[in-house]
Amino acid sequence: MKMTARGSIAALMTCMAAAGGAAPAAADSVPVSVPLDAVKTTLGVDTPRVGTGVPVPVVGAPEVRHHRGDLLPTPVVPSLPVGTELGRTLVSTPVPNLLGDPATDSEGSLSSPATDLVARTPGVVLGAPLTMPDGNNSGIPDLTTPKLGLTAPELTGAPSALLGLG
User: Fold this and answer.
1) How many whole angstroms from its chain centre is CA 127?
2) pLDDT tens for each residue of 47-78
């Protein structure tokens, strides 16, 4: 097998591995219940019930692209995707004498469903100070103005909440 064929196969395998691991898998959150029973027994008042999930962040694979004709990959310092799941949260508390009558005792609640959240760190884009080798200049690269920049960080998700009385 020729060296160019081996290099092509190695490049293809690298690209396939990067494409397969580019998106971070959102992990489940760890459920947590806040124990407030000691407050209820000590003070003698009804306490709210709080249950939520602690997010477990999962770091994905960096995304790097190399364009034909560029000396450096874009971006030089890649952005990293970090995915997590914001767990389901439920806070409920008794609401006594809502309208001044004990018959109207009720319970208030605030809940939010589980939702996926993905964040990307900023990356660094750097342009080389040299061009590709120039055939008109005996194969010597030309000087060019170097470029430097940052990619913007991202935060993607759709958290929501529901306030209720029932």
Assistant:
1) 27
2) 888 998 888 888 888 877 777 767 777 788 88
